Structure formats: C-alpha cells, structure tokens
C-alpha cells in the first residue's frame, strides 16, 4: 500500500512562551586528536537509567557518570584544556575510529562501531571493573553507517552498511539483508516495526511482516525552494499507536527547515554524501524532541514538541536561552552526537527573573562536536516549577541478565563453528593448487626428456648429410676400437 502525503509547514512558537531554556554546563576534552567524524557519526549515548555517558572522540571511548562530567566540565567553552580521563572516567577504552555507539534497550549492552566491526561490551563489567574487554564481536564485512539494538529484544539489531543495504540480525543466529537502496533506518519505539527510507519514500515494515508493509510517498511543500527532488536522509521515531495489520490513517508530513551548508562538495566537516545527518534526543516526559542537523551552520540545537498529534517547531529568539555551539578556528563546527540524561542535580536560577523561584532540574543534554569536545547543557522549563524530570540514577546490576549470557554463549559457539568451517575451506583451497601442480608434473615430460629427444633428432640429421660409405667406416672403426 502506498500512502501519499504532502509536506506542510509545521506550526511555530517561541520556546520561551512554553518555558523551555538551556543553560551551558561546560565542555570536556579528553585528547588533542582531530576527530574528523564522518557525517553519519553518532559519538555519544546516555544510559539514563544509570546516569552514565559513553563518548567517543575517535581516539578512545570514555565511560563516565554524567554528574562527574558536569562537575569537571571546563567553563572555557571554545577551547577547553585537555582533561585526564582517569580523573573522571570509569573506563577509557583505547579504540580508535569508533564512529557510532549504541545501547541495548535495558542499557546494559554497548555496541561500538568501527569500520565493518561492532565490538560489544558489558556495561556492568566496565562499571564494576570486572573486565574492559568486549564480550562479543560482530563482523559484517562492510563499513557500517548505522547500528541500533532492538527496543524489545536485547539480542537483535539493525545495521545499515556503506553500500546502502539494511541488515537485520541477532547475536545467536547471525544476520541477513532486509532491504537495499536504503538511506537510513530506525526501530519503532516498541521494537515491532522498522522504518526506513529509499529516495523520497518512507517504508514501514517488520522482519516477519513484509507482506503487510506500507509505503509513504512524500511530496515537497509547494512553496519550497529547489527543484522538488529530495531524499529522506534521516529518521527518528518517537511514538507509535498503529496496528500491525493495517496502515495508519490521517498521516501528516510537517516541515521545519534548517540553514545548512549546501555547496557542491559540501563542507569537509560534513563529509560528502555521508548521511544520515540527523542528531536527536527525545524527552518523553515533555514530548519534546531535541534535534540538530549535521550540516547546520546556524541554530545547531533546536526543539520540537508533539501535542494532540501536531508538531510545533520552537523558535529560540532569546539568545541567552539557547544551547550555543561555538565555531572553531578552521570555520564552522558541527554536531556529531546527541544524548540526554536525567541524573538528579541542583536547581537552576530562573533565567528571566532572578527574584522568581529557582527552576527544578530536569535534563542534561550531551552534545559531541567535530572539534573533539563533549559539551554539556542543562535543559529545563521555568513554567513548570512544581517538579522537574531529574531523578536518582539506579544502581547498575553486577552482571548481564541470563538472556544476554545465553545469547552470547550461543553466538560464540556459532562463531567458532563458522571459524572452523572457514579454516577448513581455506586449507582445501591452499592444498588444491599443490595437488594440481603435482599431477601436472607427472603427466607432462620433463625437461631432460625434451633435451634427449632434441639430441637424437640432431644425430639423425647429421647422418643424413654424410657421403655414402662414411657411415660404414665409422661403424667399423667404432667396433674395432
């Protein structure tokens, strides 16, 4: 089924009218290495159940408590001094080239993507200093653009490879292609469905529900600039109340625009054709989407609310209320990761009137930027003074759940079987050329026989050229001698 929708401008409202505001919390830099994160990078995730942040600057992966980072963050926002990870981090893993991080639904399994490989770590083992090594390794054979765990199955995952093939797999079983010519993909919040795009079409399906999938063909807004051609390069899915046997009714497509870098070669900081470009973090308690576009050169961090099935884009007119991203010496700075945590913290002075009561703490927004800096912002609402969203982090369990342990054990067995089969095939391939060479050596005459045949032929030619009788004298002489 194909559903046609036309993009219409989203409603707009000033964020200060609804009370939302940011307060800068500082910046963290763990190394001087130039990150050069690609356009599709996702360099920070938050285990908000436990108040834990995982961050990659493409030289190492760092694991730390959010509140410790907030306390240690430098107030020098543009060029913070390098901070020794040992002073604030639970773990610092020397893993160069990690472009994407992903946490399982229960936030206990961490996937670190580098090239075509996903190193899987146990967060309990890292936090309790039991082991800093991976519990499993996934090798997909092709560079990975996106990787995400299923929200309702801790062993199942989606991956988008560099040749735009969408892969679905599980730890104990393996993986296989789900679709090709895919620009981006994401799970539904309940993990029952998958949304992915191909060109300007949005498709909704599920691994066991292909025949009932539906497609949304999106037409651009009538007054939109350009030639009308576009692709859906990024997707996020915040809520879903549809039924698995029917396409949704009353679909709408609403437009909110960015001011972005759009040159032919794009900016070196963006990469060329390296989408998905969307960075986002969702605050369920407020139905608030914090989002940013990788190529945005203005208003890097923006807000959108979802109420009564309507999306409202929040303009941030008050400069002192925004989450500013400073530029870098080489030019524009870009967002390469975004996450939100709810660790409890002290209240915030009212941003508009110091005489009014303090604002309850709610969220800590963590933003990774291209200059290798992790930036922290406090997000709150001065119109909701009764209670904020901040909470006491839960204690991290001592070990992974039994389902993880069983799945990982099965995955290791399957991996060992595959390795044995691969080694056997490799040995057979190595031995086959040698067997063929030996057979050829037996079947074909040697060089010595070739030379003997040439000598006999030369002697016969010489005898034919001798005068009559010469041959008899030679024979008798030889006999007498």
What does this structure look like?
This protein is of the alpha+beta class. Helix content is 18%, strand content 33%. The protein is built from 6 helices and 27 strands. A hairpin with a 4-residue loop joins β21 and β22. The longest helix has 42 residues. The C terminus is likely disordered.
**Rg value:** 33 Å
For the record, give the distance between the C-alpha atoms at the N and C termini, rounded to a whole number: 106 Å
The helix fraction, in percent, is: 10-25%
| Helix-and-strand structural type | alpha+beta
Instruction: State the major sheet.
Output: 6 strands, mixed
Number of strands: 27
Spans of at least 5 consecutive residues with low confidence: 444-449, 466-481
What tags apply to this protein structure?
481 residues; alpha+beta; 6-stranded mixed beta sheet; globular
In brief, what are we looking at here?
This protein is an alpha+beta fold.
């Amino acid at each position: 089924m194909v559903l046609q929708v036309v993009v219409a401008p989203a409603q707009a409202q000033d964020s200060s009218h609804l009370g939302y505001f940011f307060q800068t919390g500082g910046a963290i830099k763990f190394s001087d290495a130039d990150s050069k994160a690609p356009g599709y990078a996702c360099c920070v995730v938050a285990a908000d159940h436990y108040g834990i942040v995982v961050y990659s600057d493409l030289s190492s992966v760092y694991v730390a408590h959010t509140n410790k980072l907030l306390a240690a963050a430098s107030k020098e926002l543009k060029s913070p001094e390098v901070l020794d990870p040992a002073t604030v981090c639970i773990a610092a893993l020397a893993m160069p080239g990690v472009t994407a991080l992903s946490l399982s639904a229960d936030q206990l399994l961490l996937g670190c993507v580098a090239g075509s490989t996903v190193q899987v770590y146990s967060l309990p083992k890292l936090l309790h200093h039991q082991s800093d090594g991976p519990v499993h390794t996934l090798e997909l054979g092709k560079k990975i653009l996106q990787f995400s765990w299923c929200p309702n199955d801790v062993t199942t995952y989606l991956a988008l490879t560099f040749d735009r093939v969408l892969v679905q797999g599980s730890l104990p079983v393996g993986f296989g292609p789900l679709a090709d010519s895919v620009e981006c993909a994401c799970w539904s919040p309940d993990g029952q469905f998958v949304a992915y795009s191909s060109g300007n079409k949005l498709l909704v399906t599920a691994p066991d529900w292909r025949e009932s999938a539906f497609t949304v063909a999106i037409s651009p807004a009538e007054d939109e600039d350009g030639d009308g051609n576009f692709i859906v390069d990024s997707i996020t899915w915040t809520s879903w109340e549809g039924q698995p046997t029917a396409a949704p009714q009353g679909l709408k497509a609403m437009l909110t625009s960015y001011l972005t870098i759009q040159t032919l070669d794009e900016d070196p900081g963006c990469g060329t054709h390296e989408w998905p470009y969307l960075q986002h973090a969702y605050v369920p308690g407020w139905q608030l989407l914090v989002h940013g576009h990788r190529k945005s050169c203005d208003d890097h961090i923006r807000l959108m609310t979802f109420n009564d099935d309507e999306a409202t884009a929040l303009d941030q007119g008050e400069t002192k209320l925004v989450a500013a991203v400073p530029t870098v010496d080489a030019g524009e700075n870009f967002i390469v990761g975004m996450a939100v945590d709810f660790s409890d913290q002290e209240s915030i002075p009212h941003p508009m009137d110091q005489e009014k009561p303090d604002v309850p703490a709610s969220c800590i927004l963590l933003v990774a930027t291209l200059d290798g800096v992790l930036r922290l912002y406090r997000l709150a609402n001065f119109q909701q003074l009764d209670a904020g969203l901040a909470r006491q982090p839960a204690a991290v369990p001592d070990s992974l759940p039994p389902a993880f342990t069983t799945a990982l054990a099965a995955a290791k067995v399957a991996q060992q079987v595959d390795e044995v089969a691969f080694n056997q095939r490799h040995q057979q391939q190595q031995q086959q050329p040698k067997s063929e060479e030996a057979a050829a050596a037996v079947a074909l005459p040697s060089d010595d026989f070739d030379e003997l045949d040439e000598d006999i032929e030369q002697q016969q030619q010489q005898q034919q050229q001798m005068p009559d009788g010469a041959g008899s004298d030679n024979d008798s002489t030889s006999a007498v001698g």
